[in-house]
User: What shape does this take?
Amino acid sequence: MTKKILIIISILFFTQANCQFKGKKILAIFSHPDDEQTIAPILVKYADLGVSVDLVICTDGRYGVNQYNNFKAGEELVEIRKNEMKCAANKLGVNLIHLNYHDQLKAREGFDGHIPHVRKLILELKELIELSEPDVIITWGPDGGTNHLDHRLVSTSVTQVFLSKEWNKEISLYYYGTPNHFIKDKKNQTLRGQEKKYLTTEISFNDNHFKTAYDALLCHESQYPKEIIEKLRRERKSNGNIVYLRKFVFPSTIEKSLF
Assistant: This one.
C-alpha cells in the first residue's frame, strides 16, 4: 500500500470520526484544580475528535497546601491555582469554567456556613447543565478517588442535580472509578476501589493523549514537583491506556417488593 493511499485512508477515517462526534458535548465536573487529571487523557481525545468539552472546577483551591510546597492557605494560593488551572485547560484543549467556591465548601464554618454554600453550588450546577445541554456528564464516584470531602460532595451534588428533573434531552452521567485490581491492599480497595464488573465503560486513549495530559499536569506547580509528576506518570502508565467509568443506569421497571 502506497504512502499516498495511507494518507487518504487516514483523512477519510478522521473525517468520519469527526462527523460521528459533531455537535456532541461533554461536561466534566470536578472539585479542585488538578482533579481533571483523573480523566485528562480522554478529555484530550474527545476534544481532538471535535467534541465540545467543558471542564467545571468547583472550588478555588485555597487549602491546597501540602508536603511539596511552602504556601499559606488563603487568597494568594487561590490566585496561583486559578492561573495553574488556566494553563492546564489550555494544554488539554478544553473550555474551563472555574467556579468560586471555597475548599471544603465552608464545612469548617459549621451548618450555617456550609449549608448555604453547598446549596448555592447545587443550584449553580443546575444552571450550568441547563445552559450547556451536554450529552455526557463525568464526575467523581462516591469514593471521591481519595475519600476527599470536596470530591464526594461534588459527586453527590452533581447526582442530585441530575436526578432532580426531567431534562430536555437525554444526558448520560458517568462516575470515574479505579478498578480494585489496580489497588494492592484490601483496605484501600474498600476505601476507593470498585469491582471491575461495575466499571462497564472503558474509554481508551493513545500515547499522544497521555503525553498531553501529563504536560498539562506540569502546570500545577504548586501541588506537584516535576519528580512527583514523573512518578505519577509511570504509575498511571502501568495501568494501561484506559479510563474506567461507571454509568448511572435508570431502572427500566417499577418493582413492588424488595425481594
Helices lie at 3-21, 40-48, 75-92, 110-132, 149-163, 186-192, 207-217, 226-237. Residues 25 and 208 are 22 Å apart (CA to CA). The two ends are 61 Å apart (CA to CA).
